[in-house]
Design brief:
12 helices; single chain; globular; mainly alpha
């Protein structure tokens, strides 16, 4: 288990915060940073790697609950049957697909090449969706929007696609303003992230884990919590009617670095 030391877990946790708050795929960074640095985390079992990833996502989600508590409280005060339907429909597809296909996805799509492809595909979706007019705002989301957001979250189970980026693209494609698309993205993501974190915690407790892995997970979760809490203002960058293409460009550049590295390694 030495490949995931406390120091490396802390670094990945620190990266998680900013990457979680921007539509650049935090999961891609958790996969690609160790690969580019030669940390060889592939020595870990797939279940252990996924458990660490879900744990740091859970730490980030907990920080969002605290950092965005006023906005969340405001949303809860306005919570009604229509909003419950939207959240429920947005939760269903990722829950079903994640439960049924989690392990095949981890085995077949967990490497740098599929992650780079996911980054590019997500970038294209974001750019195309952001061309739609901004004509819908708060209180206008309905069942079709909830289903669209749910399908986007299910698609984001593929590494590199990004839950934030996919749901932003879905909301913008449905005509929501950038500010409200960002709010919808945060609202529907939290239940899925917290649900996945709880499920992984139960599985870890049942099967048991190496002590060093537990320490690494605890370290990564704590640093992800801290870095997310400290990076709350990054949310404003997305909300201030900013185009999504700069984030798409960054994602494409990261994918290009990965593809160039893979090509170079192949030529050796």
């Amino acid at each position: 288990m030495s490949s995931l030391s406390g120091r490396r877990a802390a670094i990945l946790g620190l990266i998680q915060g900013p990457a979680e708050l921007l539509p650049i795929s935090s999961s891609a960074h958790l996969t690609l940073v160790p690969w580019l640095r030669g940390w060889k985390l592939d020595e870990l079992e797939a279940e252990d790697r996924k458990s660490f990833e879900v744990a740091v996502h859970g730490g980030a989600a907990a920080a969002l609950l605290i950092g965005q508590r006023r906005r969340i409280a405001e949303e809860l005060r306005q919570f009604d049957a229509r909003r419950a339907l939207v959240v429920g429909l947005s939760f269903g597809p990722p829950a079903v697909v994640g439960y049924a296909l989690e392990r095949p996805i981890e085995r077949r799509l967990g490497g740098p090449l599929p992650t780079a492809v996911g980054l590019i595909a997500g970038s294209a979706a974001m750019v195309l969706a952001d061309r739609r007019p901004q004509r819908r705002g708060p209180g206008e989301a309905g069942a079709p929007d909830g289903l669209a957001l749910g399908l986007a979250q299910a698609a984001a189970l593929a590494p590199g696609v990004s839950r934030n980026g996919a749901t932003l693209a879905a909301a913008r494609c449905r005509g929501f303003t950038r500010e409200h698309a960002n709010l919808l993205s945060r609202t529907v993501a939290l239940p899925v992230i917290l649900g996945a974190a709880c499920l992984k915690a139960i599985r870890l407790r049942r099967r048991g884990t190496d002590e060093r892995l537990r320490e690494a997970i605890a370290t990564g979760t704590a640093t992800a919590f801290a870095s997310t809490l400290a990076s709350q203002r990054l949310i404003e960058l997305v909300e201030r009617d900013r185009a999504l293409w700069p984030y798409a460009a960054y994602r494409a550049a990261l994918a290009a670095v990965v593809l160039a590295r893979l090509w170079r390694d192949r030529e050796r």
